[in-house]
Amino acid sequence: MNRVLDDDERIHEFAELRRKLSARLHLAGLDYWASLKRISDLPARSEFDPAHIPLLLPHLIFLRVTLDPLDYCYRVIGGTVREHLLANYTGRWISEIAHQRPPSRLHANLTRAVTERAPVLSDTPYVGTKKDFLKSDELILPLVDESDQVSHLLVLLDFDRRPLQVVGRWSSKRD
Q: What pLDDT, in 10s, does the model give residues 79-132?
């Protein structure tokens, strides 16, 4: 389903999404995505150049999309993201990864970005080796090929840490 917005709707939706973003990396990523040359309502994959966003690269996942069947292949995983994953998924399909295949929240959010042809902001419970994290906030940005089909997703992750907990008792009494 191709949902094409008129300019006023696109401006309103962009402004609404921007208001919801609190992470600087998400704001920078959204602004970069919005600056790319468009094919109909979405930016062109051919316009995406990682060299233009070096500060975002550690927080980025770049996925290739296949539509029939709908699946996602990890093409690039930034260093900060890779440190938080259970394994290096580069080159792997989401359908091959037990905790990411349908009906996972991640798969549902990626699918929403493809079918709605719009950015998706989501928080996903954290699954990984770093136990001091609660969740990751993902901004999922679709890119289209020359035939105007969503062919790639640019995902920016911001990891949310658990509040620090004091272990033991602190005392103001000194001997």
A: 989 888 888 999 999 999 998 999 999 999 999 999 999 999 987 766 666 666
- Give me the sheet containing 60-67, strands edge to edge: 70-77, 60-67, 150-161, 133-144, 120-125
- For the domain spanning 7-47+56-161, the CATH number is 3.30.450.20
CA dist 28 and 120 (Å) reads: 15
Contact yes or no for 159/53 (Cβ under 8 A) = no
Cβ-Cβ contacts under 8 Å for 130 (sequence gap 6 or more): 83, 84, 159
pLDDT in tens, 52-65: 999 999 999 999 99
3-state DSSP call for residue 144?
strand
Alpha-carbon distance 173 to 62, whole Å?
Answer: 54
Enter the pTM of the model.
0.82
